[in-house]
């Protein structure tokens, strides 16, 4: 069953938190659809900006959209003109006062969503799928990933029958809850049809605070009370 479980949903409230942080009773449906529309507009408009993730935080009448991107300059624009234009466009989709925060992703080579989108872009440019996948795997390991697994499904290489191919290097412990695993999905729209790309990247284990303090000196009981 571990293969059918989303790596983020499986780890919610253990080492991960929600991408939408708010609670509402009466306006739940409206806010949920607003979140979906906001994410879709940002993704469609800045498809070439390397958007790794979009988080939304709400409190009373205010909403904050946090955009994680590897190319912040494309979104910000000249002297912040791009952000202001985006804010005006998104403000029309919600009645809440909107704030936009842009965060730069330092290592795009080890971000699962960006790796999957990069492979999809190469497949659309007719690069051999094996070459694109192997290159992504080797670069991710070179930049410090503990493990990576990529999978492509569809009419690979323009073949008549759709199939799946996987490449893996290092450890990717999907069943370990403390394992920090990033997951990304992208679709390559080729002349032969749509090819789905999935990527899992293992970045190490996140230990609870108490265990982390116990590790350096195992025989020190005073560390337990901290």
Question: How would you characterize the overall build of this protein?
Answer:
This protein is α/β, with parallel strands linked by helices. The chain has two domains: 103 residues, K homology (KH) domain (GMP Synthetase, Chain A, domain 3, 2-Layer Sandwich); 98 residues, Ribosomal protein S3, C-terminal domain (Ribosomal protein S3 C-terminal domain, 2-Layer Sandwich). The protein is built from seven helices and eight strands; from the N terminus they run H-E-H-E-E-H-H-E-H-H-E-E-E-E-H. Strand 7 and strand 8 form a beta hairpin. It starts with 6 loop residues before the first helix and ends in a 12-residue tail after the last helix.
Topology:
Blueprint: H1 7-10, E1 20-21, H2 28-45, E2 51-59, E3 62-69, H3 72-76, H4 81-91, E4 97-104, H5 112-124, H6 129-142, E5 147-154, E6 163-170, E7 179-190, E8 193-205, H7 209-214
Parallel strand pairs: 1-2, 3-4
Antiparallel strand pairs: 2-3, 5-6, 5-8, 7-8
Helix pairs in contact: 5-6
Which range best describes the helical content: under 10%, 10-25%, 25-40%, 40-55%, 55-70% or over 70%?
25-40%
Q: Give the biggest beta sheet.
A: 4 strands, mixed
Strands, total number: 8
The CATH superfamily of the largest domain appears as K homology (KH) domain
Find the CATH topology of the largest domain: GMP Synthetase, Chain A, domain 3
Secondary structure category? alpha/beta
Number of separate domains: 2
Residue ranges: pLDDT <50 for 5 or more in a row? Answer: 217-226
Q: Supply the CATH architecture of the largest domain.
A: 2-Layer Sandwich
The CATH class of the largest domain is identified as Alpha Beta
Provide mean pLDDT, rounded. Answer: 88
